[in-house]
Write a structure and sequence with these properties.
By secondary structure, the protein is α/β, with parallel strands linked by helices. It has a single domain, classed as NAD(P)-binding Rossmann-like Domain (Rossmann fold, 3-Layer(aba) Sandwich). The chain has an eight-stranded mixed beta sheet with strand order 3-2-1-4-5-6-7-8, with helices on both faces. Helix 2 runs parallel beside helix 3, helix 4 runs parallel beside helix 5 and helix 6 crosses helix 9. The longest helix is centred in the middle third of the chain and has 23 residues. It is globular. The relative contact order is 0.15. The N terminus is likely disordered.
Length: 298
Amino acid sequence: MHSIRNFFCGQWSSSVRLDDKTVIITGANTGIGKETVRDLAKRGARVIMACRDLEKAEEARKELMEDSGNQNIVANRLDLSDTKSIREFAELINKEEKQVNILINNAGIMMCPYSKTADGFEMQFGVNHLGHFLLTYLLLDLLKKSAPSRIINVASVAHTWGSIHLDDINSEKGYSPRRAYGQSKLANILCTRSLAKRLQGSGVTVYSLHPGVVQSELFRNLSKPVQIAVKVFSPFTKTTIQGAQTTIYCAVEPKLDNESGGYYSDCAPALCSRDALDDEMAQKLWELSCQMLGITWD
């Protein structure tokens, strides 16, 4: 069984240290977010866990401090489905932290029933794309000041399931959980490319990635038959440790110092869909995102 698993997930390892570096990871108390904290904490980083549920975050934080031997792990509240919470979190970081070297936009909602965020955005697009878009915008000056620094957007191969519906961005005319998830992940890749162009020469680089099909809590919204199917295919899915490898690779691999805007899978550059390479759509999406959030970001 292990040989099958290793066949799908090449093992990558690196001895890079992150002493004196500060990392923010969203959705850090469970799944690949938690494994990413564990790895980067072992490398000596100061890690800020940005989580919606502080009680769960606190539990995870204690376990991770013990396991990594790193006491420099903190948990702060961040609800990506509420722009007020995002602004409060960013304000705290900008006030308290002298640097942020790595921002990992990891949190995500997958294929949930139709609902809206506090600001009236469709939940998957609102959390997976707009929430992280706003967070990145609010922390960008600090990331620039801390350069060389990196922004990592956890996308998904699911970006191939959807396209960007500019005229129905909140899926009000018709909702398919799968399509809306795909749209949010496609938005992650398009905006990674746009942001990389805008940040040329700033010392801030940006990456998006597909973590692999991971056994994680993301599956909690799926129907029972689909959950059973996921279990049947579990030898071909990744453990959360394997699922975190490409995120960690994008965060620490020195070879990526001069790369920006790319999409990665299995710790290597990967192909994304034709839609994900559409610069014109990327620009329109950028403008619409700014408009929806009421921000000016040129």
